[in-house]
Design brief:
The structure is a single chain. The chain is of the alpha+beta class. The protein has two domains: 4-214, CV3147-like fold; 237-377, CV3147-like. The protein contains 13 helices and 17 strands. The strands form four sheets. Strands 15-14-13-12-11-17-16 form a seven-stranded antiparallel beta sheet. Strand 14 and strand 15 (300-304) form a beta hairpin.
Length: 378
């Protein structure tokens, strides 16, 4: 039985929270809204279960939609949602995983928090008749499949079945390099209609209890409720967010320049920010690879993935997507230390490769906690 069963009135606060924790990625909340509204309209039950309530001997998997944000937009929400009623690739690839494992899957857990990629897993759980774990692999979004708490806690990314929009299926049974399955997946999806799904990280319930970042879906719902309430009362939503996430407001300003591009499903951006107040004369660069990855102020590194850099609209507290940023866009930036489980994973031998700053073009960087880089804020 689920620990919490979602109701239609949960859609807006849940999406508000997921968009904030998504750090610029995780898929558009508009897509998430369409998915959840469709599920409720056809009578599906969407629920989450606390990690403490699952069987240690059960089978848990993760997974998600793969594809370019721009391809999704070109296909159109209504067309994709209608297609998923006839053929939901994420369900198909999960059934393929059951065949590969030779056992029934008891629970699914989101790869990441985000406006699209969390709701699709809630929908998958509803279609399979199983509750989704209240947690995910990051407590935020990330651009690559190997960038997870799971991989640093001894859980194999493979086997990883993939299915593309055209119905082609590839199964990565083993990978010497943890970055290989994601790279192959991007190629498969790019060649197969630009959209697909994968399933990965098969684990036991006991492994999930040790590696999943806990309570992140319920935390997203709670955060969204707090933001909506602050907005309705006329309170400062940025202050509310910073308090709720145990973060620090780094700056408020606007984007003065962007260097951007897209390659193999990834949206790259370096945003130059003009800040207000004490940082008004500083050179500020925010590096994004679908999600916020690094902050540099006056040439000094101030935050690195996997710590969170939350991009918010200063007036409403709404979480901003990287693809909607433009010159002149107002921006509030909140820094948040990532969960200890994620830091443990990033410090492991496998994690150091999977989370390496070279994955977002920073070959000379080594991860340091945000509290040490912005020590005057903590």
């Amino acid at each position: 039985m689920p620990t919490y069963k979602f109701k239609p009135e949960d859609i807006e606060p849940l999406l508000e929270g997921l968009a904030i924790y998504g750090t610029g990625g995780g898929g558009s909340p508009e897509w998430g809204r369409s998915i959840l509204e469709q599920d409720f309209s056809v009578g599906r039950d969407l629920g989450i279960i606390d990690l403490s309530e699952i069987s240690s001997g059960g089978t848990v998997v993760s997974g998600g939609i793969m594809g370019s944000v721009k391809i999704l937009e070109e296909m159109g929400t209504s067309n994709v949602i209608a297609h998923w009623e006839d053929r939901f690739e994420l369900l198909e690839v999960t059934r393929i995983m059951e065949g590969v494992l030779g056992k029934k899957i008891d629970h699914v857990v989101p790869f990441e928090l985000g406006g699209l990629n969390t709701p699709v897993i809630l929908s998958l759980g509803a279609r399979m008749g199983i509750p989704v774990l209240d947690g995910d692999a990051l407590g935020r979004s990330a651009p690559e499949t190997q960038m997870t708490s799971f991989i640093g806690h001894g859980i194999s990314l493979t086997p990883m079945p993939l299915i593309d929009f055209n119905g082609n299926v590839v199964v990565v049974h083993d990978a010497v390099d943890s970055t290989y399955p994601d790279q192959l997946g991007r190629y498969v999806v790019t060649q197969g209609g630009g959209l697909g799904a994968n399933n990965h990280y098969p684990m036991t319930g006991l492994q999930a209890k040790r590696a999943v970042i806990p309570n992140t879906i319920s935390a997203s719902l709670d955060l969204g409720r707090a933001v909506l309430s602050a907005r309705a009362r006329g309170d400062d939503p940025i202050e509310v967010v910073a308090k709720k996430v145990n973060g620090a407001l780094i700056l408020v300003g606007e984007i003065s320049a962007l260097r951007e591009g897209e390659s193999i499903g990834f949206y790259f951006t370096t945003a130059v920010i003009e800040a207000q107040g004490e940082l008004s004369k500083s050179k500020i660069e925010l590096i994004i690879k679908n999600e916020t990855m690094m902050l540099r102020i006056d040439g000094e590194t101030k935050a690195l993935f996997p710590d969170l850099l939350l991009m918010l609209d200063p007036g409403s507290g709404r979480g901003l997507m990287s693809i909607e940023l433009g010159v002149g866009s107002p921006l509030a930036l909140i820094g948040v230390p990532c969960h200890p489980r994620l830091r443990e994973a990033a410090a492991s031998p496998q994690g150091r490769l999977a989370f390496s700053p070279t994955r977002y073009g920073q070959t000379d960087e080594i991860y340091r906690p945000i509290e040490s880089l912005l020590e005057d804020m903590w």
